[in-house]
Amino acid sequence: MIFNREFEFTLPRGFIDSQGKVHRKGLMRLATAADEVVPMRDFRAQQNPAYLPVLVLARVIVRLGELPEINAGVIENLFTADMAFLQDMYRRINEMAGEPVVNGVCPQCGCHHRIPLDFNDLKTFS
Length: 126
Prior knowledge:
Layout: E1 6-16, E2 22-29, H1 33-37, H2 43-47, H3 52-60, E3 61-64, H4 72-76, H5 80-95, E4 101-105, E5 112-116
Antiparallel strand pairs: 1-2, 2-3, 4-5
């Protein structure tokens, strides 16, 4: 069975670097057990369990725009809308067997459909 291990995304707002450049397009990979266990040893997560998602996302986001490195500092400086988007994406791609999909029903004929999720198909906030 071949399945996708990396998923492209486009952030709703984007990360703004020190030069003012906005980075919105990225790539997230499926998490491993180590991605969830190793950050638990970090003193920041031990002192504040709410910091754990920052560390996990820093491990599984492979690319964000043209940034040379993704680390906890990058994730810390995301807008809350982007953080919520990435946490939801993480949950969806890691908790579903196979490709991430949503179940839908056609309002006209009542047929049930499995619709693949596209994490790039977002409207930009103004």
